[in-house]
Design goal:
By secondary structure, the protein is mostly beta strands. The protein folds into four domains: 1-85, no CATH class; 101-299; 306-422, no CATH class; 508-668, no CATH class. The longest helix has 20 residues, at 648-667. InterPro entries: Pectin_lyase_fold/virulence.
């Protein structure tokens, strides 16, 4: 039957009976196809020699079907190839499962397959949507390529590689896929090479084949480790994705340690979707690894290329060796659609030889236990740390987005917090000093959640930047001095231990327990916009208000506090001279240490009108505050300094008297 002459498609609806092979000839144009809609019966077979032909009838012929090089045969229903004959597709030919009136095609004949097609780039393919299946045994007689396009799923049963290469491809649509649900046997190579975004290949069977698996494009999905065939099979990712697929959600999909994975020159991607993908085998190679979804590395890996964690990706490891060579950079690519997460074990140290790059907007590190991050952290994004038992950061980091911490972050120097402009965000969490710290004015501390805290831990901290956030309270704990010199834009700041100093501005400030309030960094001014409370009750203030006097300039050479609302006094008032001002102070000078909108309470060691000795013993002042004050009742004022230092003339006379007494004693 020859359809090579003339133009246009030819349709035959009549039934045909063949007792010998029927030969089909035709041109190579898709505009000149032969459509056989009637029934083909008899003991003969089909020889498709050339052209494009389609079988759509309910056929019963029992002979073999051969599609020769250059020819294309399409079948549109499960019975189009007749009875029990074998189907052969030669190198250069194409057999396509298509459909008519939305039939789903499931073909059961044995198939001998070779080649990569011709004008259709597959030896066996499926198109026009819906699921189509070849349920008969497939044996490769040469290297072969199978695929799907136009939103179609092609399912295959048992495949014998027979020493050849099988390429599985999805051509154009995200729903295109090739599924092998039976057993792949024999020796050969399996290649997943899809150009469709989101398309790919899927292996679900208990496969026994030996050889190589190469993933060069799209994704190769597996539902079990045994789908990858023999343990000796090397799996190479060279531009493609290895993806876990769902059979059960009970357990992650685990790739056995006996396997070997290689990352080729175009890199590779591991994707764990609803079902996590855990890779126990060794991963080697010099090129980029991309993590999508939930993935675990547990092998002793030697790869040297970077590891990129995509948005909504999560990489979990049990040990540092799972991250490959120390030269491997871990890149976080989180954005507004989802974070990029590295999950680390408890009591884990990420070594100083490693580099973490927050290359996206954000990244995240999580752990259920204590962490030490000695690695160098770079990039423009913010690194979030969620560690129940806290993290210690020891590197000199340069990332621009700073840290967002849930838990406790301990640092030994300001450089650990990243670039000088990088903020530190505490999510109901704490900053712990591991050494004396000097923080520049360009760095902001942000408190979120129900608040945060700074733990001096026995060290001194000078924080020159602002402390801000949402409507959260903040606190200082631990012995040591905290000097705040920026604005504290928070509802309430509590001090429970140690000393609070500096020239900061607070909204509300409360001092509790055995804490000390000492304005300035020598002499200085603290501003409280609303209320200052030296607390009583259960949090009774048993500490002190430490005020230094080094001149007659308020807030510059002697300490001062301005309170916009109520100042509640308690504890002790401690006065100390600085700048040798004890030698210059006079009884006529007035020092307004505190000015408030309203003043209540009293000091335990200095009531209104009482004279108070300075802690250094140089003299005493009259203390004035409250309703009976000789000055503003809303202010704390010192007056009438009386020096304990003898006048120079008195010292000279006393010395002369002692000398004269000594001479008289000698004369006896």
């Amino acid at each position: 039957m020859n359809n090579a002459i003339g133009t246009g498609n030819t349709t035959l609806s009549n039934s045909i009976s063949i007792e010998q092979d029927l030969t089909l000839l035709g041109g190579d144009s898709f505009e000149r196809q032969l459509m056989l809609l009637g029934t083909v019966s008899g003991t003969g077979g089909l020889q498709v020699v050339s052209g494009i032909h389609n079988l759509h009838g309910i056929n019963t012929f029992t002979g073999d079907t051969v599609v020769q090089s250059g020819a294309i045969l399409g079948i549109g229903n499960p019975f189009a190839l007749g009875g029990s004959g074998t189907v052969t597709v030669e190198d250069g030919a194409s057999l396509q499962l298509t459909s008519q009136e939305n039939w789903q095609v499931n073909v059961r004949q044995p198939l001998m397959l070779a080649g990569s097609g011709g004008s259709i780039p597959f030896a066996l393919s499926a198109t026009h949507g819906y699921s189509k299946a070849w349920n008969g045994q497939i044996t490769l007689t040469g290297d072969a390529k199978v695929g799907a396009f136009d939103g179609t799923s092609l399912s295959l049963a048992n495949v014998d590689l027979n020493g050849n290469e099988l390429v599985m491809g999805a051509l154009s649509h995200e729903d295109d896929s090739v599924i092998i649900y039976g057993t792949i046997s024999g020796n050969g190579r399996l290649v997943a090479d899809s150009s469709a975004t989101g398309g790919g290949a899927l292996l679900t069977g208990e496969n026994t084949f030996t050889g190589e698996i190469l993933i060069t494009g799209g994704a190769l999905g597996i539902t079990r480790d045994s789908a990858l065939g023999d343990f000796s099979n090397t799996i190479t990712l060279n531009g493609g994705t290895l993806r876990s697929e769902i059979i059960t959600l009970a357990n992650p999909l685990f790739i056995e340690p006996a396997r070997s994975l290689v990352i080729g020159e175009n890199g590779g991607t591991f994707f764990g979707g609803v079902r996590p993908l855990n890779i126990g085998s060794t991963i080697s190679g010099e090129n980029r690894i991309t993590v999508q979804g939930s993935v675990g590395f547990s092998g002793d890996n030697s790869f040297t290329g970077p590891v990129s964690i995509d948005p909504n990706g999560r990489l979990s490891i049990p040990a540092d060796s799972a991250l490959g060579a120390n030269t491997s950079v871990i890149e976080f690519l989180g954005d507004s659609t989802g974070n990029a997460t590295l999950s680390l074990p408890s009591n884990f140290t990420l070594s100083a030889d490693r580099t973490l790059s927050v290359s996206g907007e954000r990244g995240r590190i999580v752990s259920s236990g204590a962490l030490t991050l000695a690695a160098n952290i770079t990039g423009p994004g913010q690194l979030e740390i969620d560690s129940f038992q806290g993290v210690t950061v020891t590197g000199n980091n340069t990332h621009l987005g700073g840290f967002s911490v849930t838990g406790t972050i301990g640092i030994q120097n300001d450089a650990a917090l990243g670039a000088a402009t990088a903020p530190l965000t505490l999510n109901a969490s704490s900053l712990r000093a591991e050494a004396d710290l000097l923080v520049p004015a360009t760095r902001t501390l942000v408190a979120t959640g129900w608040g945060g805290s700074i733990n001096n831990n026995g060290f001194d901290i000078t924080w020159n930047g602002d402390v801000t956030g949402d409507d959260s309270n903040f606190s200082k704990t631990g012995l040591g001095n905290l000097s705040l010199n920026g604005g504290v834009v928070l509802p309430e700041f509590f001090v429970y231990e140690g000393t609070l100093s500096g020239n900061g501005t607070f909204r509300n400030l409360s001092m509790a327990f055995r804490s000390e309030l000492s304005p300035g960094n020598s002499a200085g001014l603290i501003t409280v916009q609303e209320d200052l409370e030296l607390m009583s009750g259960e949090l009774r203030f048993a500490g002190s208000l430490q005020m230094e006097i080094g001149g007659d300039s308020r807030g510059l050479s002697y300490d001062a506090i301005d309170v916009g609302g109520i100042a509640s006094l308690n504890g002790s008032l401690v006065l100390t001279f600085i700048n040798s001002y004890q030698n210059e102070a006079s009884s006529s000078e007035i020092f307004t240490l505190l000015s408030a909108g309203f003043l209540t309470g009293e000091f335990e060691n200095a009531t209104n009108g009482q004279r108070l000795e300075t802690a250094d013993g140089y003299g005493s002042f009259l203390v004035h505050y409250g309703d009976s004050s000789s000055y503003d009742p809303k202010s704390l004022v010192l007056s009438d300094f009386q020096s304990n230092i003898p006048e120079p003339s008195v010292c000279t006379l006393a010395a002369a008297t002692l000398f004269l007494g000594w001479r008289r004693k000698r004369s006896f």
